[in-house]
Amino acid sequence: MLHIKRIEIKDWLGIKELSISPGKINKVDGDSGAGKTSLIEALEKALTNNSRRTEVISHGQEEAELFVELTDGLQITRKVRTEKADYLKVKHDSKAVSNTEGFLRKLINGDIFRPIEFMQKDAKEQTEIILNMLQIDWTTEGIKAWFGEMPEADYQLHILQILKQIESAYFEERSSINREINLLRANIEGIKRDLPPDYDGEEWRGVDLQQLYRRLSEAQESNKKLEEAKMLIDGLTLRIDDIKRRSANTAEESKLDYRRQRDTLTAGIQRLQQRVEQDQKLIDDADRRISEANLQLDNELEQAIERLKLQYQQKKLNIKEDIQQEVELNKRYISEHREQIAEKTTSLDNLAEHERKDKEKIADQETNLIAAEKAKSGHAQQVIADVEWIDPEPLQATAHKAAEMKEYLREWERMNDIIREKLAPKEARAADLTAKIEKARELPKELLKTAALPVDGLTVDDKGRIRIDGTLLDGLSEGESFEFAFKLAKAQAGELKVICMDGWQNLGSKQQEILEAAQQDDYQYFLLSTVEGKELNVETVEG
Known about the structure:
The protein is of the alpha+beta class. The chain has helices at residues 36-48, 100-105, 115-120, 123-133, 140-147, 159-194, 201-205, 209-234, 236-284, 286-303, 309-386, 392-407, 409-448, 478-492, 510-518; strands at residues 4-12, 15-20, 25-30, 63-70, 75-81, 87-91, 458-460, 466-468, 471-472, 498-501, 524-530, 537-540.
């Protein structure tokens, strides 16, 4: 068994100078700050080159020197410097030492194990320490082979912790992708709900909507011509009857118009003749009226005063002139009225000729209209013979259906774009991540089969958690935790079997139990106790 034979410390963490020759069990006593922990850290630095503190050289000094001699004659000299590079010398009388740091790392697994300090750590820190004790060979090439890439992880950790990080990272990525997939699927389902059932855009993409509506328009135009032709044939008699009826109405209206003209002219002639008769009567009655007037005036004259004879004589003359003027005027009226009678009589005589010509015109127009209608009917007969009736309903239904379906084409294409460009790649990535997650979960089981577990009953579950006989680390009782820490300390030790225990003064009744066990095993112990007011003291406990 390999133990520490001698320790020399100079200018290290408050220890000015110390030289001891430890035995199998060594009690290290002293007040807080006396240098107990500094002694153990000096051993760790000398053997592993690890420092728990940044400044380790005593204040005012430029160099700290550590010397450790083992029971097999190996001597280790390490100097920690501020101005120059550190110095290390490893010497053995019977062994050649080439790679000094590598040689020393074979003597001790990590740091000198401290069971009490281990018990005071949380489960996460304890797990990390234990996992680092599991020697599992792995390489970055192996990780690339497992996952096809180098996933992001802290590759300074233990491989089981690395795999757990990789699994968590893949799981988180897959969860994020699955959320996106669910949103995409919901989006796709929303689009599907707005599409007709079993809608297939490929079926409608190539449909020529313009051609369908062109066929419908051509059918409708052809049917329109056919209907118009049939209507011409079917309505020919009615239209001829209508033409005749309208011609008869026109003739009747013309006849009535001429009758009204005749009546108007006849009435005008009669009125004028009556006026001629009236005026002639006035002319014929002129002498009588003059006699009567004279008689009346004579009567008045007889009754009037003599002096008025001349005045009445003048009145006679005036009346005579007035009547004579009226006669002349009446004669002129008679002449004018006779001229008008002659004109109206001529017009009345001409009405018969005008009426005859209008009748001929109406009859000619009726003949021409009937001939035109018959000509139209003849063309309609040809249309009926040449044009076949086409049912527009199926064509219209097909065109409307295609137009309606094409309205959904853009949404259908958008849905397929989402499926092809977004959903499918994410589903493929999710499937790839699932395979990688399963790989990351299976690998620890496979790797643990190749690892030598430091303590019987220790297992690592699929979540990377440490269990002791099936119980998680933080579920152990104080006694179970203490027993496990000691087993682990012994398993942690390499060729150099050294165990350090801080807080020895707090173990009470367990001290004797530990001492009895320590005297029977192959390990070298350093037991650190805080004793108030006492300077650093190291003494060997005899068996």
